[in-house]
Write a structure and sequence with these properties.
The chain is of the alpha/beta class. Helix content is about 40%, strand content about 15%. The protein has 2 domains: about 110 residues, Bacterial fluorinating enzyme like (Elongation Factor Tu (Ef-tu), domain 3, Beta Barrel); about 210 residues, Protein tyrosine phosphatase superfamily (Protein-Tyrosine Phosphatase, Chain A, Alpha-Beta Complex), CATH 3.90.190.10. It has a 7-stranded mixed barrel with strand order 1-2-6-5-4-3-7. Strands 8-9-12-10-11 form a 5-stranded mixed sheet. The longest helix has 20 residues.
Length: about 350
């Protein structure tokens, strides 16, 4: 029996290698590195060569080589995982909530090759992770759902003190709704995680309330990437938290969609305020319910929600009892983000 199992395993491996050999190597050049560390390439031939989302491939750049699934979005993989996103302009190589350029050392002009590793090897998980949404207000139950705008009151956070949303200054279909809702909530201070002052300025004409906050010096632009644990991110987050401490609530925290950078920042603030892991997960997942209709209790919901538990475990460096999430968040805020004990106390007090 043991010999039969070994023979079957060898046969399956041989079939996989044979199937992979049927596909040509894709070769191109890295044409750009985004502020998030994603590597854009000029490889547009993937569909023509039979490569499609759900396949497993091997990506090679110089001495760097790693397996990755082909996908259509960064959220097709877990936090910290590699994905090759198939786009019309060329395959973009990224790490979800990380910097591929930092990990791989990839630079503009480098040669990149992509080889088939296993046809359809990621197809089942890719299908589960598919997320679709529209930009039509009529497709959503309310302005708040459309703009992913909501009050945050988990743990000890007082009602009417902290809000989160998509960007009011992105210039897309959702932005005017976010600006209007910010005005209705009487927002006084904004932590803009996504923009620089220059990129923010491009959307101010369509965001009159936001403009008044900018004029009052009540908006900080942090121009963050998506790697929460990179020194650049934590330094900018420290500046944002200090800005909150020195300014009046109600606060609005946003990035572009209000689910990734804002999602992690809000999760940290909730943990610092004594929210349970279940409460933090529920609030994080509300963005996926709002945008994509992801339903609680489904395999898709469970997969995506692991982003938050992984986030805190990475923060701690190892697994921990979830009852200790506040302690983990406080230690991380002090030791890595760099707030002092007095600043941490002032932040927690500002949210109550």
């Amino acid at each position: 029996m043991k010999r039969l199992l070994i023979a079957l395993a060898v046969a399956m491996l041989a079939c996989s290698m044979l199937a992979a050999a049927e596909y040509a190597t894709l070769e191109g050049t890295i044409t750009g590195i985004s502020k998030y560390g994603n590597a854009a390439t000029d490889i547009t031939s993937a569909p023509a060569e039979g490569y499609e989302p759900g396949d497993m491939v091997t990506i090679t750049i110089g001495d760097y080589s790693a397996p990755a699934p082909l996908g259509t979005d960064y959220s097709n993989v877990d936090s910290g995982s590699l994905v090759a996103v198939v786009e019309d302009t060329g395959i973009e190589i990224a790490i979800n909530y990380g910097s591929f350029a930092t990990v791989s050392g990839a630079q503009i002009g480098d040669t990149v090759t992509i080889d088939m590793l296993e046809k359809g090897g990621y197809a089942e998980e890719y299908a589960i992770r598919q997320l679709e949404r529209t930009d039509n207000r009529e497709d959503y139950a309310s302005d708040e759902v459309f703009a992913n705008f909501r009050m945050v009151d988990e743990g000890n956070i007082a009602e009417g003190v902290l809000y989160r949303s998509c960007s009011p200054v992105r210039g897309d279909a959702r932005a005017p709704y976010a600006d209007k809702l910010a005005q209705q909530a009487s927002i006084k201070t904004v932590i803009n995680l996504a923009d620089s002052a220059e990129s923010m300025a491009e959307g101010l004409a369509a965001a009159p309330y936001y403009q008044t906050l900018v004029d009052n010096g009540s908006v900080i632009t942090l121009d963050m990437g998506v790697d929460f644990f990179a020194p650049d991110f934590t330094e900018k987050l420290a500046a944002g938290l200090r800005f909150m401490i020195s300014h009046e609530p109600p606060y609005l925290v946003h990035c572009n969609e209000g689910k990734d950078r804002a999602g992690m920042t809000i999760a940290l603030l909730e943990a610092l305020s004594g929210a349970t892991m279940d409460e933090i997960i529920a609030d994080y997942m509300e963005s996926y319910e709002n945008y994509y209709g992801v339903e609680k209790g489904t395999e898709q919901y469970a997969l995506i929600s692991e982003i938050i538990t992984d986030f805190f475990q990475t923060m701690n460096g190892r697994p921990f009892p979830y009852s200790m999430v506040r302690t983990v968040a406080e230690q991380y805020t002090l030791s890595t983000i760099g707030l002092s004990m007095d600043e941490l106390a002032a932040l927690e007090e500002a949210l109550q």
